Amino acid sequence: MTAAPGLLADLGPEERRAVLARMHRRTFAAGEIVCHEGDLADTVHFVVEGRVVAWRTSDSGDVHAYAVMGPGQTFGELAMIRRDGRRTATVEAIEHTVTMTLSYVEFERLCGEHPEVNRLLLRLLAARVTRLTEALMEALHQPAEQRVVRRLAGLCDVYSSRPPATPRSPGSPSSHDAVPVLVPLNQTDLAELAGVTRPTANRVLRRLEAEGVVELLRGRISVRDVDALRRTAGHARGLRHG
Question: Which domain holds residue 88?
Fold first, then answer.
């Protein structure tokens, strides 16, 4: 059993085996709800196969999707902090999905038996803080059009079978990103994830299509030049900080 090896990398072999032994495998069909907003948060999920979408309901009753997560990613980590916490979002399986779960009770026992397991919690919380900080900075300082580009680039990482590419200088060859990435979401989905209107997302995608970076298909987006898309997203970050 090898669940989320990256997140367990800081642990020694004995602690890693102990964590894996306490985990439970769960499977979800496409469209199945993994957890509801407001549910008791007593379990953290490590995505092993498939992908899920997280969404929240606004005070006005509108539903807003804000994240798609795939293999190697984690959700529900606040369950490791307090016994009576509540889910802050609804998570739904987009496709057949497998997760490995660890309950609050099991985590507490593990920490008692293997104090080094606390490193796992630190890594989970550090990753969450990083995601929240990036999302806040993006919302406050990034133009809507650039949010679309960055969110699409992030989705390439989620839907690609390859690890994210190392940035390279413009014009140099890159066989790594020569393979297109098919993102099985439509323009409305991308707009919602980027926090923009559909016309804005459509305008950005049409420009990228004219440049040969993407191809718009029925209900899907094929990213033909992932490297070019990532360079555009990286340029946006440079402009923001420069």
Answer: 13-137
What count of Cα atoms within 13 Å lies in the side-chain half-sphere of residue 47?
A: 24
Q: Both 116 and 179 in a single domain? A: no
Q: Are 17 and 8 in contact (CB under 8 A)?
A: no
Q: Which candidate, 33, 25, 151, places its Cα nearest to that of 89?
A: 33
- Residue 73 and residue 131 share a domain: yes
Contact by Cβ (8 Å): 88, 42: no
Tens digits of per-residue pLDDT, 31-73?
999 999 999 888 999 999 999 999 988 778 778 888 999 998 8
Sheet architecture: strand order including 220-223: 181-183, 220-223, 214-217
Check residue 15 and give left, alpha or beta (phi > 0: left; psi -120 to 50: alpha).
alpha
Q: Which tokens belong to 192? A: 């919602």
